[in-house]
Each structure stands twice: as structure tokens, then as C-alpha cells.
Specification:
By secondary structure, the chain is α+β, with helices and mostly antiparallel strands. The chain has three domains: about 1-110, no CATH class; about 150-175 and about 295-440, 3-hydroxy-3-methylglutaryl-coenzyme A Reductase, Chain A, domain 2 (Alpha-Beta Complex); about 175-285, Hydroxymethylglutaryl-CoA reductase, class I/II, NAD/NADP-binding domain (Alpha-Beta Plaits, 2-Layer Sandwich). The protein is about 40% helix and about 25% strand. Strands 5, 6, 7, 8, 13, 14 and 15 form a seven-stranded mixed β-sheet that branches. Strands 1, 2, 3 and 4 form a four-stranded antiparallel β-sheet that branches. It has a four-stranded antiparallel β-sheet with strand order 10-11-9-12, covered by helices on one side. The longest helix has 27 residues, at about 190-215. It is globular and about 85 Å long. Bound molecules: zinc ion (ZN).
Length: about 450
């Protein structure tokens, strides 16, 4: 069949580096296919290209029979609708009028740019990235980004950064989970006594709650800290448990461990005649799903690359000082708008795209989206980096939820086999995206059509 020939031809050209993966649809047209068959062939060719690169087969990330959208207009209110070609409800979502298809030439487009499969969650290919340092590996970047071209920017950014060698990644060995207990007393004396009694009991309590709730998941308590706070007549004692895990997120286990410690402490306070007015799990203090630069949860990861200043100045066509002016004006904009002293750059888009693809725990990844872009000069090099201080991730399925088959396939294709590799790949694609983005802005090419 003609289209099968085209797919084989395009795949070979991609593998030889003669065809950019995002140009596959265009190349299929040139090879004689017509729309929308060229879209199907382009996606199929990218899939076989990625299979060859990753050594993995696509099974659960399916390619639908019609992997494109169809564009319509509502004749009643003139609203435009681009629907997945497989959508059978061809009516306006606002007034229920039957929709009219746009002229042939404007009708069909891929579901997302650089589409490679998936229904509802549309997967895109965003090139590959090689990292060195704490993790040494080449990852195939696949992302559920959305309809935009962000993944192309990541692709280009990773390619440009890898011209200077692997991206240097540093990632902590453990991911931290935290759960806080809070006790309210009428007097400071009672609070002081309670703290001493609890502290004294910890050497008995920690092995028990570890055995009961953490060991099976390879987790352990690494720290317990105390904090005094007051609200009017409430003398508050916070007691926060920190656990750490290598590949498991451990959030639920840590919560249950702290919950069982609470029961032991409650009995202890009663036995010692200490009047505790309220004893609760006080989640506000443990950073649960609260984005904050002071967040004490998750895993630290950073990624950076060194680029000779002279080469980078040539690339942006201006002085490095102007690049730093851009970094500073953007940093100032972000920090002042969000009111926190942490610069998030584009991480708020790139990081969720990564989590949506891999579907590891946690599903609410808000905590993990904090990111800082940094740039400095060292010797003759520009050092461009990102740090993600709070990446929460469990690579194993758990009571917090399974990782669905298509997400497990995405992990295999990407090449992720541990929580550290998840964090390393995440930081590397974030850096690639930020680098491309910052460069385009300073070149005045972003959104200007230049
Ligand atoms: Zn309508």
C-alpha cells in the first residue's frame, strides 16, 4: 500500500537524521499522499522512529484510525469548533445547532503538534535529551502538552544544549514526605511538659510506626521537629514527622504513621494528667499540596549546562548583558506577580505536561511545579540552569493509585526506571524548554513571527 511505503520511507529518513520528526506530515504530502492520509502516515512514521530509538513497542498509547481533528463552524452563532475526527456529536456545544465543516483545505490538522498517539491525552514527541552527573542516560521526551508548540521548543532547546555535552543533573537520593500533628493547650507549662514527654517517648514510637506503616515501602522516619505557635489563648505545639523513600512517594504511609503516633501521644498525655484541649493532624504545617519555596516535601533536582559566552552571544546576536537584563526582568515579573521569592519561569506549563504524561503519584502535582531559573557567568561560560526543589514522585503503583498501562508505556519509552530518573528527565526537559524560550525572547523571535 502507498501509505505503508511512505511510512517506511519517512521512518528511515528520520533515523538517518535527514527528516525532522515534526516535518513528517509535510513530507508525506510531498511523497504523494493527500490530506488527511498524510497526517495518519506522519504520526505512524514518528511512532516507528520512536520505537527504533527507544527499543520499546507502542501498545497502550494507541493511534486512532483518524488521528486528526476536523474543523467546523456553527451556522447559528459562527463559533469555530475543532473536534477530534472520531467525535460523533457534530453539533455546537453552546446552541446545539448541527455544525458545518470548513472548506477541505482548512479542515484537518493533527490532534496536537508532533502527535504520536493516545486518545483524550494526546501524546507529542519532544525530541530526546542526554543527561550526565547523578543520572547518566538519554531520554526520549514524550509529553501530553496540549495543542501548542511547546514540545517543539523543548525539542530544539534540548538539542541545542546537548551540543555542549550531556546536561549536568544533580538529584537527591531520597524523596521526603511529611505529616504534622498539632496539640493545643491552655498554658505554656502544659505545652512544655507535653513536648518533653513526647520527645522522650520517640525512641519507642519511631520503630513501631516504621514497622507498621513504612518498612514495606522502603521508608523510614528521618526527622521529627517541634514548633511552638500561639493564637490568642491557644498555646500550640506542632510535631512534624518527616519520612524518606527511594522510589515510593510515601505520602499515605507517612500520614498513617503519624496518625498512629498521635494515638500513642494522646494516651501518654492523659496518663500524665496534661490537659490537651485539642489533638489533631494539622496538615497546614506540613506543606501538603501547598506550593511554597519553603516546602519541606519531595526531592531536589537541578539541571544546568555551560555554554561559551562568545558562542551564545553569536546565537542571540547581542551582548550577554542584555540576556541577563531579560532574565532579571522576567524573574522580577514572576516573583512580584505570585508574591513568593521563587522564580517559576515556564515550569508551570512544562512540569504539568510531564506529570500528565507519566501519571505517577501524586496526581495533584502543584507542590512539584516550583522551579527556579538561574543564569550566571563562570569563566568564559554562561551557566544556565533550573532547580526544582520539591519534586514529589512515586515511581511504583501504590494505595495512592495505580499507574495506568499507557502511562507505564510512556515511562518505558522515555527510559525512566526510578524516581531519580523521573526527576532527572523532568529537570532536563524543563531546562530545554526554558533555554529555548529565553533565547527566542532575547532574539525577539517569540510570538513576533520573525
Ligand atoms: Zn452554536
Amino acid at each position: 500500500m502507498k501509505s505503508e511505503d511512505t511510512v517506511t520511507k519517512l521512518t528511515d529518513r528520520m533515523l538517518q537524521g535527514k527528516l525532522a520528526p515534526w516535518k513528517a506530515e509535510e513530507a508525506a504530502l510531498e511523497d504523494g499522499l493527500t490530506a488527511p492520509e498524510n497526517i495518519t502516515a506522519g504520526a505512524a512514521a514518528r511512532r516507528s522512529f520512536i520505537e527504533a530509538k527507544s527499543g520499546q513497542r507502542f501498545r497502550h498509547i494507541v493511534l486512532p484510525d483518524q488521528p486528526y481533528h476536523t474543523a467546523y463552524r456553527c451556522p447559528n452563532d459562527q463559533s469555530l469548533w475543532t473536534l477530534a475526527a472520531e467525535d460523533t456529536h457534530i453539533r455546537c456545544g453552546m446552541c446545539d445547532t448541527p455544525l458545518e465543516a470548513l472548506p477541505e483545505a482548512q479542515r484537518h490538522k493533527p490532534l496536537v503538534n508532533n502527535y504520536i498517539g493516545g486518545i483524550e491525552d494526546y501524546y507529542s514527541y519532544a525530541g530526546e535529551v542526554t543527561v550526565g552527573g547523578d543520572v547518566k542516560k538519554t531520554f526520549q521526551n514524550i509529553l501530553c502538552w496540549g495543542p501548542g508548540v511547546g514540545h517543539l521548543g523543548i525539542s530544539v532547546g534540548c538539542f541545542k544544549l546537548n551540543k555542549y555535552g550531556p546536561i549536568e543533573v544533580q538529584v537527591s537520593d531520597w524523596g521526603i514526605a511529611a505529616r504534622n500533628l498539632s496539640f493545643v493547650f491552655d498554658t505554656e507549662g502544659d505545652r512544655e511538659k507535653a513536648k518533653k514527654i513526647i520527645q522522650k517517648k520517640l525512641p519507642d514510637v519511631l520503630p513501631k510506626i516504621t514497622r507498621d506503616h513504612l518498612s514495606e515501602w522502603g521508608g523510614e522516619i528521618v526527622d521529627v521537629d517541634f514548633l511552638y505557635k500561639q493564637h490568642h489563648g491557644d498555646r500550640i505545639l506542632h510535631c512534624c514527622f518527616y519520612s524518606r523513600f527511594e522510589n515510593h512517594r510515601g505520602h499515605g504511609q507517612t500520614s498513617h504513621a503519624a496518625g498512629s503516633a498521635k494515638l500513642i501521644f494522646d494516651d501518654l498525655l492523659k496518663e500524665n494528667g496534661i490537659a490537651c484541649r485539642l489533638s489533631v493532624v494539622g496538615m497546614g504545617r506540613d506543606g501538603d499540596l501547598k506550593p511554597s519555596p519553603r516546602n519541606r516535601r519531595g526531592r531536589y533536582v537541578s539541571a544546568q549546562q555551560a555554554i561559551p559566552v562568545s558562542e551564545y552571544e553569536k546565537s542571540i546576536g547581542r551582548s550577554i548583558e542584555e540576556f541577563f537584563s531579560y532574565i532579571e526582568l522576567d524573574r522580577q515579573g514572576v516573583t512580584e506577580e505570585i508574591g513568593w521569592p521563587v522564580y517559576t519561569g515556564m515550569g508551570g506549563e512544562i512540569i504539568p505536561a510531564f506529570y500528565r504524561t507519566m501519571k505517577n503519584n501524586p496526581r495533584p502535582y502543584l507542590v512539584s511545579c516550583f522551579q527556579k531559573v538561574y543564569a550566571t557567568i563562570r569563566g568564559n561560560d554562561l551557566i544556565f540552569g533550573v532547580e526544582l526543589p520539591n519534586v514529589e514522585v512515586g515511581i511504583t503503583s501504590s494505595p495512592e493509585g495505580i499507574i495506568p498501562p499507557m502511562a507505564r508505556e510512556a515511562l518505558r519509552i522515555c527510559g525512566i526506571t526510578s524516581a531519580r530518573e523521573f526527576a532527572a528527565a523532568l529537570a532536563a526537559v524543563t531546562l530545554g524548554g526554558e533555554f529555548n524560550f529565553a533565547t527566542l525572547h532575547v532574539q525577539e523571535r517569540m510570538y513576533t513571527g520573525r
